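Treating backbone geometry as a discrete language has practical consequences that deserve illustration. Part of our work consisted of pairing the sequence of a single chain with a tokenised description of its backbone. What the numbers capture is local backbone geometry rather than side-chain detail. For completeness, the protein is quoted in full, as a sequence line and a line of structure tokens:
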Amino acid sequence: MPEAVTISELLGPKAVLARLEAATKKQALQDIANHAAASLGIEAHRIFDVLWARERLGTTGVGHGIAIPHGRVAGLEKVRGFFARLAVPVDFESVDGGKVDLIFTLLAPESAGADHLHALAAVSRVLRDPKICEKLRAAKDAESIECILTAASTARAA
């Protein structure tokens, strides 16, 4: 993966959940792991265990209603992303103390090296724009959300 990673390179088919119903951080991560597992053909508990272990090291809630959980998963061939917009914001123990409603999960191969960091940087660049987050919160469906993420990422990579 080149240094200028785009969101479209990270998102596979059906990688966006437009209205995830979760009452807690743990439930949100479990639901995302289940969704990712179905797409990737990897056991959900393996994905969840990686995400939860990373979360125990320190919150991935970066503030402004955004979380970027991430981790390395054996069996993956490339970095993959999954986006979820929560129906109701949940406590993510975020750095700013606010609740989270936008979650972009990154899963990387164990040997990802710098690819994992480039993907994190690309997602962070897009999600730190308040106007983009506003559009993501207002979007009607998963297809609209994916278009917003892809267009924002492409504009920033250019």
